[in-house]
Amino acid sequence: MEYRQFIVPTDTEILDALGVVPEIVEGEDPVRLIRISTEEGDDFRLSYDVPGRSIRCQWNRESSLLLDLTREGADYLRVSSDRNGSSILIHFQVDSLSGELHIQLTSSVTIRDKLLFC
Predict the structure, then answer these.
(1) What are 36-66's pLDDT values in tens digits?
(2) Comparing C-alpha atoms, which of 77, 113, 111, 105 is closest to residue 18?
(3) Residue whose C-alpha is closest to residue 90's, from 73, 106, 77, 107
(4) Distance set, CA 36 to CA 6, 41, 52, 56, 104 (Å)
């Protein structure tokens, strides 16, 4: 298996696109956490471990867990924003599998996930 680097935006790029600065997860030194609350009452959390090339995506609405997704093999994370809201795109590549996790953050959260054989 070929090693791939997990490329992530800087804290400033995340702040500019999402309006929050990633937190350092206590006790998990390389793990960073992006925490966002929406107007609809969604609580979204994305933690990522650059050396481990892994992410964890959690989405809660009014204290009910809607999604808890953990995935390894991330090779890049991108953030962007426009007049419609902010988005996060994470690309994954492991052996013969490739895919993307696309998170749209507007007044609520929308998540699209795709992982397929190459």
Answers:
(1) 999 999 999 999 999 999 999 999 998 899 9
(2) 105
(3) 77
(4) 22, 10, 23, 14, 12
pLDDT of residue 3: 76
| Rounded Cα–Cα distance for residues 68 and 93 (Å) | 20
Do the beta carbons of residue 12 and residue 20 sit within 8 Å? no
Amino acid identity at 47? S
| 36, amino acid identity | I
pTM: 0.94
Those residues of the chain that have pLDDT short of 70 are 1
Token output for 81:
């924003």
**How many residues are there in the chain?**
118
Assign 81 to helix, strand or coil: strand
CB neighbourhood size of 21 (10 A): 12
Query: Longest C-alpha distance within the chain, in Å?
Result: 43
